[in-house]
User: Fold these one by one.
Assistant:
Number 1:
Amino acid sequence: MEQNSNPYTPPTAALDGPKDAATNARPTSITVICVIGFLGAIATVMMLFSGVTRSIGAWYPPYLAFSSLVGLACFIGMWRMKKWAAYTYAGFAGLNQIVLLVMGLWNLAALIIPGIVIAIALKSVRKMT
């Protein structure tokens, strides 16, 4: 064994992580929309059991549950800085707008929040993997 070698010294490259880790750092705006999205998913679960959602139609609670799961998956993906999450959220938000329009439930507020999330996500997509 060499005099200067220490078998208990870990290799620093393995601990430092990828060289470009700083370029993939999550922007504060993504953190904020993800936290709000996580809270929204919790609120949606509570709404599933309300009479209001059932009054829209028998199809709506399952659709809302599915939408919530897709949204939650997208927010987890955005938290992890994944491009697929930004694109999936944008596409699914578009589909939700069509569903709301066809059902006569669409209003401007239904577009504002997803629009802000999409704008922030797509602005940050070049930093995502």
Note: Confidence is low (pLDDT under 50) at residues 13-17.
Number 2:
Amino acid sequence: MRRTFALVIAAALLLVPSAPLNAHHAFGAEFDPNAPLRLQGKVVKLEWVNPHTWIHLEHVNQAGAKEVWMVEGGTPNTLLRRGLKRESLAYGTEIIVDGYQTKDHSLKRANGRNITFADGRKIFMGSSGTGAPRDGRDPTEPPTPPAAKKPPGGALIQ
């Protein structure tokens, strides 16, 4: 009986279709909190997919050459709740993205924190959590406690 059960389980596992797994990652696993950047350009492609959206924008670098950057954002559901819709990022839409470059600086890829539109609207679009910089732009981020004050000639006051 046990042997039959084990064979059934083994056969079932063999029948499970194997597919590549896209593991979800923490900010710190892929992006460099010490490499902030600002990209400005037009949207050339949009991937409105889980677990992260990807905005591709054409940016002109300091040398005047055009580069296409991939910018990671939060999940589509999260962005919708913040007021960002797929239609807001139609091809050709001019945007500014503040974010952080990937740890591999040879790649044209970044994690977007804020997106600013030509009309001045600014939306937090970045991921937060493990390794993400606490920069005050994440509306769900707890406030940073005030720095300790040191009186003249005294000990620190908390």
Note: The first strand starts at residue 31 and ends at 47.
